[in-house]
Amino acid sequence: MNHESTKSSSPEATSPPEATSPPEAGHRTVRRRGRLHSRLHANPALSLTTKLLVTTLGTLVIVGGLVMMVTPGPGIVGIVLGLAILATEYDWADRWLVKARDKAHQARLRAEAMDPKVRRRRLMLGGLGFLAVSAVAVAYLVAYDWPDFAVDGWNWVQGLAGWVPDLPGM
Questions:
Q1: C-alpha–C-alpha distance, residues 58 and 41, integer Å
Q2: Hey, CA dihedral for 3, 91, 101, 16, is it positive or negative?
Q3: What end-to-end distance do the CA atoms of the chain give, in Å?
């Protein structure tokens, strides 16, 4: 499809948006973020550090979102937030972010349309599942004596790497 044929020939349509409307907070934020991004990538070492930090943080937030998809929590929000972090450095993440925002909007509409009884039942089941997992974790820690278990694990780590410091008070 030719996009040129659909544009009007009026001066407002051909001029850049900044020329016809006063600068808004959104435009200032985009320019400020662009300047910061340029500064962070001016030096090769800082550029690599920035890219590693953004990649690590974005990936961790996405993994947290994926975990929250099967456990109680806002999984879709975590995935969208992780993609937003990655989109500051990667074009593919920006494309995925558009799709993820659309999915988040669809999920919001489905949640708003859900029957209140079904919503309460799901919240109760999620809460009971959380309590069950918590009870199993507490039982495991009590059965295997948490303080000794932690100290033995720390001693094992120290045996692997001698530079690991001793626990305080040990």
A1: 18
A2: negative
A3: 73
Cα–Cα dist 87/99, whole Å: 13
Distance CA 130, CA 123 (A): 10
Q: What secondary structure letter does DSSP report for 167?
A: P
- Listed by start position, the domains of the chain span 27-113, 116-160
Q: What is the pLDDT of residue 24?
A: 54
Burial class (CB in 10 A: 0-12, 13-18, 19+), 104: middle
Do residues 137 and 129 make contact, with C-beta atoms less than 8 angstroms apart?
Answer: no
Phi, psi of 65 (to 5 degrees): -65, -40
d(CA 15, CA 123): 52
CA atoms within 13 A on the CB side of 85: 19
pLDDT (average), residues 110-134: 88
Model confidence band, residue 26 (pLDDT cutoffs 50, 70, 90): low
Based on its alpha-carbon atoms, the radius of gyration of the chain, rounded to whole angstroms, reads 25
What is the predicted pLDDT for the residue at 33? Answer: 65
pTM of the prediction?
0.49
